Amino acid sequence: MRTRFAPSPNGPLHLGHAYAAIVAHDLARAAGGRFLLRIEDIDGTRSRPELAAEFRADLAWLGLAWDEVPQQSLRLASYHAAGERLKAMGLLYPCRCTRAEIAAAADRAGPDGPVYPGTCKGRDIDPTDGVAWRLDVAAALARCGPLQWGDAIAGVQQARPEQFGDVVLLRKEAPASYHLAATLDDAADGVTLVTRGLDLFAASHVHRLLQALLGLPVPRWHHHPLLVDATGRKLAKRRGSPSLADRRRAGEDGPALAAALRAGDFPAGISLGDRVNMAA
Ligand code: GLU
After folding, report:
1. What is the Å distance from ligand 1's center to 126 Cα?
2. pLDDT-based confidence at 243, cuts 50/70/90?
3. Atom of ligand 1 nearest to the CA of 197
4. Is the beta carbon of 41 within 6 A of some atom in ligand 1?
5. Most CB within 10 Å of its CB: which of 76, 79, 166, 246?
């Protein structure tokens, strides 16, 4: 049994992260398993390396001990290799659409915003010319057939990755997209229970498809509810949720805070993903 807490070092952790880390940590410990702190630091434009040390200090302050600290930036070769495999399978195509073009052309919204309408599919595009690579989801599904995955709370799910459209797997400005990197890492880290917030529930449909395409082991998932603020939106630093680092430096009692979260004592409540406004 192996779980992980996988923060991106692009901003400080807040109470919602503390709860996510506690859920992952406690599930591992209850099963005599291992708890991993994975640093998801491949977004070169947003990553702040100094935050990884802060994350460790935050978790230690809460009284959480981790067993391993894998780091995405040390694994770029594996993302590249998986991308090449998927290209060789004929499942990726280059795309050079801008966000604005996609927003203008999209005819539906998916879990991550406007769904890519497939503009570049079948186009003759020079792949050396700063492109993103998208997964041809219809072709991928045709190859794999129906897939299922299991969430500890929500139960068995039929995989519906098509709700995202043709997702980007290799980004223009980063070595891999979140979907590809997280899926490969969970396999490389031997994660058997993927714990994360309900805001990422839908992403698991895509991850299940990638596991099938790349022959990776299929974990179980545990998507936990999200801490919300007084307006019912999930906690976010940019909406004024104090950082764990500030609370730690102010001398607050970390283990007491962790105990309160474990006891269900949340400042404004907790919510299931579909009732939370996910807007950034
Ligand atoms: N790095 C992601 C985040 O900070 C979490 C990824 C995951 O748990 O799969 O939102």
Report:
1. 32
2. very high
3. 8
4. no
5. 166
Mean pLDDT, residues 64-91: 97
Q: What is the pLDDT of residues 150-195, one digit of tens each?
A: 999 999 999 999 999 999 999 987 789 999 999 999 999 999 999 9
The 8-class DSSP code of residue 15 comes to H
Please state at what angle helix 50-62 crosses helix 254-262, rounded to 10 degrees: 70
What is the domain range of residue 269? 2-74+182-278
State whether 88 and 117 are in the same domain.
Answer: yes
Pocket of ligand 1 contains residue 115 by CB under 6 Å: no
Q: Which of 15-19, 33-37, 203-207, 276-280 has the lowest mean pLDDT?
A: 276-280
Count of structural domains, the chain: 2
In this structure, are residues 71 and 7 in contact, taking their beta carbons and an 8 Å threshold? Answer: no
| Ligand 1 and 187: CB distance under 6 A | no
Q: What is the pTM of this model?
A: 0.94
For residue range 193-222, list pLDDT tens digits in order: 999 999 999 999 999 999 999 999 999 999
**Is residue 241 assigned to a domain?**
yes
Examine residue 138 and state whether it is found in any structural domain, yes or no: yes
What CATH number has the domain bearing residue 20? Answer: 3.40.50.620
Angle between helices 254-262 and 15-30 (to 10 degrees): 70
Cα(224) to centroid(ligand 1), Å:
13
- Helix 76-88 × helix 178-188 angle, to 10°: 110
Would you say residue 188 lies in a domain? yes
